[in-house]
Amino acid sequence: MPGVEEIKNNLISKLRYSLCLDLKDATHADIFNALALTIRDFQLDSFFATKHYQKEAKSKRLYYLSMEFLLGQSLRNNLMNLGLYPAAHQALNELGFDFEDITAEEPDAALGNGGLGRLAACFIDSMATLDIAASGHGIKYEYGLFKQSIQHGRQVEQPDDWHSTHSPWLIDHHSQLMLIPIGGHIEESEDIDGNYNPMWMDWRVIVGVPHDYFVTGYGGKTVNKLRLYSAAASDSFDVHIFNRGDYLRAVSQKIASENISKILYPADEIQSGKELRLTQEYFLVACTLRDIFQEFTDKSDDITALPDAVAIQLNDTHPALAIVEMMRILVDEHRLDWDAAWDITQKTCAFTNHTLMPEALETWPVTLFEKLLPRHLQIIYEINHRFLADVAEKWPDRPELLASLSLFEERGEKKIRMAHLAIVGSHKVNGVAKLHSELIKQDLVPNFYFISPEKFTNQTNGVTPRRWIQQANTQLATFLTRQLGAGWVTDLDKLQRLKKLANDSGVVEEIQSIKLHNKQALCRLIASRQGIKVDPLAMFDSQVKRIHEYKRQLLNVLHVIHLYLGIVESGNTLIQPKVHLFSGKAAPGYAMAKLIIQLINEVARTVNNDPRTKGQLSVLFLEDYKVSLAEHIIPATDLSEQISTAGTEASGTSNMKFSMNGALTIGTMDGANIEIRDAVGAENFYLFGATAAEINTHRATGSHNQIYHSNPVIRETVDALVSGRFNLDKSLFQPIYRMLTEGDHYCHLLDFDSYRLAQHQVLTDFSQPQQWHQKALLNIAGMGSFSSDRTIKGYASEIWGITC
Questions:
Q1: Contact of 762 with 664, CB cutoff 8 Å
Q2: Taking the CA of residue 265 as centre, how many other CA atoms within 13 Å lie in the half-sphere pointing to its CB?
Q3: Cβ 81 vs Cβ 471: under 8 Å
Q4: What SUPFAM superfamilies would the database entry show (predicted)?
Q5: Share of the chain above pLDDT 90, in %
Q6: CA pseudo-torsion sign 690, 696, 697, 701
Q7: How far apart are CA 125 and CA 490, in angstroms?
Q8: Which of the four pLDDT bands, split at 50, 70 and 90, describes residue 639?
Q9: Alpha-carbon separation of residue 328 from 197, 290, 312, 335, 469 (angstroms)
Q10: CB neighbours (10 Å) of residue 87?
């Protein structure tokens, strides 16, 4: 690997010959770009070596399809994984630049929304670290979800043009353009042998442009790629439109094609949004399948051997069209008979489910498929016909199975059930936590489990310790290396050895010192960004994630209101000072989530400006949550809020990141919380709330709707929402008040008292620093099984048939 002088020389050369700049004229942004281009060259050397040894080994290749890859910043991560971090740090210092200033210039790659995209980023890191021949496949969104600002307490969405200047990490491949047909109609015909031969006619073309973003495994041996596709219009206008003199319409069609990769996940409340989103999903799978077949046929003429050489993992239902596109290619282009094509498709594809809420399962109107993907609609009808015929033959005494298993929802507007398509077309279906996987089988799709129990499995999520400890918490990483040796970075099970140090007061004090250092760093960041002074000695209680009713930020802020009322109305004094930190984005069209953000900010304004709370209680909403902000918040947190309604969160991954950074968890029996509690010890986890089964019982009986009227503490807290205390407009939070008192589907009030008591125990324990940080150490020690390396090993052996 290169040394300091080589990095310096290469950086200066990149400035001159790639950016046309002298060192003396370069801004911090220029230095970042030059250093990134320098590091990319070293990545490429390893990438070509990786391609060579994977080809020689005839490695089975994994293609991971996801609509999101939430990568964050890449410079630090690449430097660490390549082993160049110290040399690059020194090189910048010798050139007269501060390393922190330069790394801060990198924008977060805005290719995802939340947990789904961050999980995908962890997974591709682990695949490279484990030397798996793999590539991620997604869309190169020009604009991310949105930049969030808070104005007058409200979320305001602004364009997130993360790619306004070309990312130094991306390499465009315009020589590998892909022509993707869409629209048109089907003409019925027969081939020369009299077989049905449908002709897809009059389609328009979208051009897919591949871009490669290189993913370095730890140690730099394996460098895989994340392939991102952008959309372009074909070189020519629609001649028929142009010849009619409608030049503007011809131009608008080109613009519409190019808009496909403009922005991540448009709002889908209106028809145009639905059409764009479905087009994005098809565009991703069509581009990816072209890559897959091109790479496979370059090596083999036997298309029936595809499942031996290729595995495809569908990250949620968004890429489920890969099943249909593969069938189209095999049947229409390779002329395989249906049964052979279906056997290849099922053996190649596998599906990860990420939701437990039936209303969140993706469906698409048949009319939209008829307009955009007429041939694919034909294939889905045929898949459904053959599948249901097989079910009817095997279970003739269970006719009720057919409607529940059908790929089509027939009530109201006829729609295609994408989860059903993904299940039928895959050889394995996995959940992402033990409870989640069981609830998929029992509650979400029980009839699919009944007919194909062998398909269903579990792969509990994990996160990469390279990003979430080594990079985000350098002091903790140094401590772990000193105690365990350097091997913990790729063998997180070594954390178990920390348990024997739990009674060593010196070690516990060091954990406390590391936490204080990280809290002080976060305090400086908050002061610089929001002008607010925060006491680092207070307890930091954090809930940072997408804003949603089921994640129950509302339960958290209701408890804050309860604490505030206790201080100002009853003269209570908190056992320990406390800072409540919130961060997260609400979907632009999600009115209730946006109102919850406004409530948090109004409560923060009231609490923070009341002299009676000074030194006891403060509340902050940190705007524009993203990976780089999470890397500051997570290591600084004392208490991690994982308080979703039991039975709603598939897994969660922030719960893992917080725990492995020494935060204790207050949480429900939901998602991976259950496995984390088992791993760290029940005495080191603050459990509260009803179980998933109890939630279902309360919903069925409606008993959760009586709590407001029967509990005076809850009634006082909820009434404060419409008292004018937090906003002079008493009607502002009336929708939240009505939701809590008339329906409360996510059972905020049912769990309120249990949550309140658990929070009281938290503050009592935090007042004893030695015992608290001993618990923190035991949390870190128990997190070995939550590495994404362990997760990927499970996928490889149990689903993909890959040895690692």
A1: yes
A2: 18
A3: no
A4: UDP-Glycosyltransferase/glycogen phosphorylase
A5: 86
A6: positive
A7: 11
A8: very high
A9: 12, 12, 16, 10, 44
A10: 19
pLDDT at site 268: 45
Tokens of 583: 């961060």
Residues carrying an active site annotation: 354, 545-546, 551, 653, 657
The mean of the pLDDT values for the chain is 93
Within 8 A by CB and 6+ apart from 643, the residues are 543, 551, 552, 555, 556, 666, 667, 668, 688, 689, 751, 755
Domains of the chain by range and CATH? 59-74+109-460+793-800 (3.40.50.2000), 465-785 (3.40.50.2000)
Instruction: Tell me the residue type at 491.
Output: D
CB 699: neighbour CB atoms within 10 A? 17
Q: What is the DSSP letter of 143?
A: B
Least confident of 133-137, 203-207, 313-317: 203-207
Contact 502, 616 (CB under 8 A): no
Find residue 150's DSSP bridge partners.
155
Residue 762: exposure state from Cβ atoms within 10 A (0-12, 13-18, ≥19):
buried
Cα(425)–Cα(540) distance, integer angstroms:
46
CA distances from residue 796 to 62, 123, 791 in whole angstroms, order as listed? 9, 12, 9
> Residue 166 CB: number of other CB atoms within 10 A?
10
Span 378-388, pLDDT tens digits = 999 999 999 99
CB 804 within 8 A of CB 791: no
Say what the pLDDT of residue 110 is. 80
The answer to whether 658 and 637 are in contact (CB under 8 A) is: yes
CA 119-120-126 angle, 5° bins: 90
Lowest mean per-residue pLDDT among 79-93, 161-175, 214-228, 278-292: 161-175
Q: What is the pLDDT of residues 88-104, one digit of tens each?
A: 999 999 999 999 999 99
| Rounded average pLDDT over 522-550 | 96
- The whole-angstrom separation of Cα 706 and Cα 172 is 60
Q: What is the pLDDT of residue 772?
A: 98
